[in-house]
Design a protein that fits this description.
The chain is mainly alpha-helical. It is 59% helix and 4% strand.
């Protein structure tokens, strides 16, 4: 996930705040292994990926998109980080989803579908 959706990767703070080091290590380790393997095969594609990532970040949302939260990315990521730590400490999975939504490069109505599952995020199976 960290390589395709970079800013929602902030959700890994959930594991750190809950001191779930094994889960955090697995997520980071798998990501590092994928990066190392792909870099060994095609290092030039990493340059292309970085260029595209930076170009996309600076381009802003699609002009036809309906922006629903027009704050600078750095502000939204900071707010999301605080919300994730709170969510992790209280066990509020729905807030984790909302925070990763806020941390996206462009918070648009078209991307809001990801928060539609938030009410179900805290539902646990009944015994």
């Amino acid at each position: 996930m960290l390589l395709t959706k970079v800013t929602p990767g902030i959700g890994l703070l959930w594991f750190a705040a809950r001191r779930e080091w094994r889960q955090l290590g697995v997520a980071l380790g798998v990501t590092a292994a994928i990066m190392a393997f792909s870099f060994a095969i095609a290092p030039d594609l990493w340059v292309v990926w970085l260029e595209r990532l930076l170009a996309t970040a600076s381009a802003g949302p699609n002009p036809t998109a309906i922006v629903i939260l027009d704050l600078p990315l750095v502000v939204r990521v900071a707010v999301a980080a605080v919300a994730i730590v709170i969510a992790a400490r209280l066990g509020w999975g729905w807030l984790l989803l909302a925070a990763t939504f806020v941390a996206q490069p462009a918070v648009t109505l078209q991307r809001a579908s990801m928060i539609l599952v938030a009410p179900r995020a805290d539902r646990r199976p009944r015994p």
